[in-house]
Task: structure prediction
Amino acid sequence: MEIKKITKLKLHGFNNLTKTLSFNMYDICYTKTIEDRNAYIAYIDEQYNAQRLTTILTNVAHIIGANVLNIAKQDYDPQGASVTILVCENPITNEHEPTSSNTEAPGPLPDAVVAHLDKSHITVHTYPEYHPDDGISTFRADIDVSTCGHISPLKALNYLIHSFDADIMTIDYRVRGFTRDITGRKLFIDHKINSIQNYIPPEAKNRYQMIDVNVYQENIFHTKCKLKEFDLDNYLFGITKKELHPGERRKITQKLKKEMDEIFYGTNVANTMNRWGV
Result:
């Protein structure tokens, strides 16, 4: 009830709340040969190189109204990349106060979006990885958007989902610290939030199975997502399912679904076929 009363805040000094969005995505793939596996890793490494990741993070900065101060980026050998962007406050330049910055709704895709922001950073790290002898390759990207002040980084979530064609997503949001109103009373959150899912557009929510784990009294919110539909062709690199014997298709399908369930549920499992209705 207390959160509902602080839609429009009058603060004593700067808003010292720190809001952090952690967005983790996974892409799963099966490669039949070592050559195909190496080609997949090379493809992913090129698709999500430091330059493209810099473009994505720069768009995130624009969406949340940030002014980019500094960019540090690096491609790694043999694979992987990292980008860190430092951002600062971007003054309001239009006549209208940004009314949607703290509303519990999906954020915009890249466009002219202006809001207050100060002393913040955005980072991304990528992790291409593969099973030593099972044909399974997994690509993970971790993005953190940390802001201080009025704006919530959750407004970048819609764009991040559109930027990565993810099989699995793990999303965490936390508000830390406190700020004070003009009477000196501490405020430990400055906007209403029931679930991260409210910041995800309906078309995306329809595609994913979702689970929430929220600790409201600590302002900690967690949502994980796994694609509902499974088409084997979407997970094969260098071959198609028509080229595979039916028995081989079933084996590969089992491997892929097991991999996805283990990532989604965060545990090694012996058999996951019942969860997929197989």
